[in-house]
Amino acid sequence: MGIDQPGPPDASHQRRIGLTGGIASGKSSVARLLQQDHGLPLLDADVEARQALAPGSPGARAVIDRFGPAVVAPGSAPAAAVLNRAALGQIVFHDARQRAWLEQLVHPIVRTRFAQQLQGLATAPVVVLVVPLLFEAGLQDQCSEVWLVDCDEQQQLARLMARDGLGDGDARARITAQWPLARKRPLAQVLIDNRGQPEALRDQVARALGGG
Ligand code: ADP
Prior knowledge:
Oligomer: single chain
CATH superfamily: P-loop containing nucleotide triphosphate hydrolases
Bound molecules: adenosine-5'-diphosphate
Shape: globular
Distance between the termini: 27 Å
Number of helices: 9
CATH topology: Rossmann fold
Number of strands: 5
Number of domains: 1
């Protein structure tokens, strides 16, 4: 195992909940409950992936080197390495090869940052790892259990369009860039059903946490 791997749950018997799902299936909503209702520490791969491409970072520079002025934020000089994330999204969600390139850049940075954060949380009995591409990246071994936040595909599409202000085509491109929920469902130990009202999540989360 490389130094940048978080490593599987170890002798400390730390409970590591891998929280995954599809884009807009409700991961953030469940994560908020775990944090606010239950006070659990949270590591979020999306947050770390954004940090990996933060203004002026080596990651942002690498992206600008590859894609050129089209991915530089309006009004910023290329040398400042500030990304136009919408423009980058347009490229990578319509071109699997470019998406794979971006993922090989970002994933190791995220893993390193997770490893550092987990070191700081070594004595916490429970931690939550929010990882949208957990199964795609084969990271389930890093968790002691995996929870999947589930909903129907039509709901996922409608919620994604509403949340991110996307048209049908752009939203579908983002959904099909991931494994479908149907493929992920049988791989999870816990299914959190988010087909109903958001309020229905609270009890399910408490049960899943209590039931272990
Ligand atoms: P994810 O983190 O998986 O991408 P979010 O938790 O951000 O998903 O949820 C996606 C969007 O759908 C958000 O705007 C959220 O407020 C909304 N949403 C989440 N759960 C429900 C629900 N049960 N009913 C209606 N809207 C929901």
